[in-house]
User: Which sequence fits this backbone?
């Protein structure tokens, strides 16, 4: 094979071999006659997409048409020239890929540098991102440090706790213990003649002071801010020539202190609830002498307590035979039967109205059971006659008491 030099044709851009364009045939050599029947190795332009098919045809010893319609004559074909051209193209592509890789590596490096600078800046600003210890592969890593968030939450929790404590302190000192400062004052005493019927409408002291004994009003208070109690109790003590006077006074006081004993017997329990929840045991017991004469005295205890979500509104009558020095059992005063229950309901509707929960939502059988229970039964004397009723609880969500005034009570007395 002769030496072959390559250039590109200015007209068509194809390869020029030995001064002759292999595509358009333009001769760029000095004028001389070409040698007839002398063929050089055919060259296929890299711009011709049909090159592969031509190459395939040569390998199969066929005589294909060239791209321009002419037939390629038989002769030697050296594909090395094409392979060389492909190497150049591959080299260019490889160079471009290398540039792209280097560019991506540079961008990644810049991003990493900026990230580290941002983290360092946040560290300098006191942010929560801090450098952790080196891992086992000695590479540094940066992870959020939530310890400070925990401290902030703890601080906020502490602030909330302190606020709660301040609230409960205020509650304990200003609300729950804002007891009745007038509780110890003397209560007005009403003349029996001023209490007229037909119904007894409110608790009042109605003390006959002409009797040979004396009625004293005494007090017990427990304002315990350490254990959580606000208790105010007034109770009656008798003075004079009365049989079993000491026992009678002890019983009167014990009955008056009944609800206070819940606190006094277990202060630790109340103290714990008070410390944790601010729950205060609030109790008032007011005592009234609703009727008295030389032989009989009736004392009414008006109990009212509140604790957490519970409470109690109830009254209890203490009736004393002063001649014998005996505190009467209330269940032993009147005959209580089904006929009495029906009469009680009829009179209650007339006195208290038709919408009484204690009448409409409690069966007569249950009412009779309440009348026959010493703790539920209410009986005490008034200038009008005898007040009779019962305490009830958890009836349609209500608790309380109900009574009627009975001027003609004597027909129901036991022993007649």
Assistant:
């Amino acid at each position: 094979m002769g030496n072959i030099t390559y250039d590109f044709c200015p007209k068509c851009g194809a390869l020029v071999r030995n001064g002759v364009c292999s595509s358009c045939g333009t001769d760029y050599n000095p004028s001389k006659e070409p040698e007839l029947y002398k063929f050089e190795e055919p060259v296929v332009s890299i711009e011709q997409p049909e090159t592969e098919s031509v190459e395939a045809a040569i390998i199969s010893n066929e005589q294909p048409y060239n791209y321009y319609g002419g037939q390629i004559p038989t002769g030697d074909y050296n594909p090395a020239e094409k392979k060389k051209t492909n190497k150049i193209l591959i080299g260019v592509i490889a160079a471009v890929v290398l540039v792209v890789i280097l560019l991506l590596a540079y961008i990644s490096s810049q991003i990493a540098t900026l990230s580290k600078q941002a983290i360092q800046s946040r560290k300098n600003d006191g942010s929560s991102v801090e450098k952790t210890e080196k891992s086992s592969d000695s590479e540094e890593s940066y992870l959020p440090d939530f310890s400070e968030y925990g401290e902030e939450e703890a601080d906020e929790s502490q602030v909330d706790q302190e606020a709660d404590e301040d609230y409960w302190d205020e509650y304990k000192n200003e609300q729950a213990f804002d007891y009745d400062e007038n509780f110890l004052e003397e209560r007005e005493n009403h003349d029996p003649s001023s209490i007229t019927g037909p119904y007894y409408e409110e608790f009042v002291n109605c003390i006959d002071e002409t009797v040979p004994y004396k009625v004293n009003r005494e007090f017990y208070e427990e304002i315990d801010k350490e254990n959580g109690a606000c208790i105010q109790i007034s109770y009656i003590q008798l003075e004079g020539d009365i049989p079993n006077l000491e026992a009678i006074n002890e019983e009167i006081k014990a009955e008056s202190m009944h609800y206070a004993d819940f606190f006094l017997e277990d202060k630790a329990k109340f103290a714990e609830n008070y410390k944790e929840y601010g729950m205060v045991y609030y109790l008032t017991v007011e005592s009234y002498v609703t009727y008295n004469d030389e032989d009989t005295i009736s004392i009414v205890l008006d109990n009212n307590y509140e604790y957490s979500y519970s409470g109690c509104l109830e009254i209890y009558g203490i009736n004393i035979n002063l001649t014998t020095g005996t505190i009467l059992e209330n269940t032993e005063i009147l005959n209580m039967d089904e006929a009495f229950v029906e009469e009680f309901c009829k009179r209650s509707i007339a006195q208290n109205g038709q919408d009484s929960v204690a009448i409409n939502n409690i069966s007569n059988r249950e009412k009779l059971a309440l009348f026959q229970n010493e703790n539920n039964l209410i009986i005490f004397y008034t200038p009008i006659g005898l007040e009779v009723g019962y305490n009830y609880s958890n009836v349609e969500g209500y608790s309380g008491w109900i009574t009627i005034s009975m001027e003609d009570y004597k027909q129901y007395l036991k022993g007649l």
About this structure: The radius of gyration is 57 Å.
